[in-house]
Amino acid sequence: MLMPLETGPQKDCTLCPRLTSFRQENSSLYPDWFNGAVPPFGDNNCTLLIVGLAPGLRGANRTGRPFTGDYAGDLLYPTLIKFGLADGEYQASACDGLQLKNCMITNAVRCVPPQNKPTGQEIKNCQPFLTDELTKLPNLKIVISLGRIAHESVVRAINGKQKDYKFGHGAIHELPRGQRMINSYHCSRYNTNTGRLTVQMFEDVFAIAGDYL
Predict the structure, then answer these.
(1) Left if phi > 0, otherwise alpha if psi is -120 to 50, otherwise beta: which for 159?
(2) What is the DSSP letter of 2?
(3) Whole-number pLDDT of residue 6
(4) CA distances in angstroms from 37 to 11, 100, 184, listed in the order given
(5) CATH class belonging to 39-212
(6) Is 190's pLDDT higher than 90?
(7) CA distance 171 to 151
(8) Which of 73, 138, 163, 203 has the greatest count of CB atoms below 10 A from its CB?
(9) Which band of pLDDT confidence, cut at 50, 70 and 90, is reported for residue 61?
């Protein structure tokens, strides 16, 4: 299910002029796509929150569901199913009926950025939405940050200092309110094709989270 919190951006959010323009261009080119600020997906009573970077152009920007329709989702969703965090079959569509269990997926930036590269200001503009999720999910215990930008966004969301939270694959950080953050390299095609991130490495992160949960 989609998270019913009312703190996220509207689909036609205009906080970031460059992202708004890019989204409008894609709306003209691909009128049947979602083409909007992508809301979180999952269980509102979750104990695990997964934070990614931003919607992919032909992934979440097309389907309207985080990590759905792009290569990263081909690794993420089967992993969630394997670890009992999702029910159903992932078919790369927001209409595939897949349901998350005790888990939610969100992004540091909610609108697709050109070349998958948001600017510092765009990341900052989306920061309040992530802060709200971290503080208003009532049962949250574990945050898995996929990649450095997601990691740094979580640190800013808790008003932490980056020097006190060094990013590293498999690193575990204590957060306020008794929560923990676990780092992972992003499950992008580039990282998996180059061997920087293997399936085993990715699954190890979820095994760590499962031990805490």
Answers:
(1) left
(2) B
(3) 53
(4) 5, 20, 24
(5) alpha beta
(6) yes
(7) 11
(8) 73
(9) very high
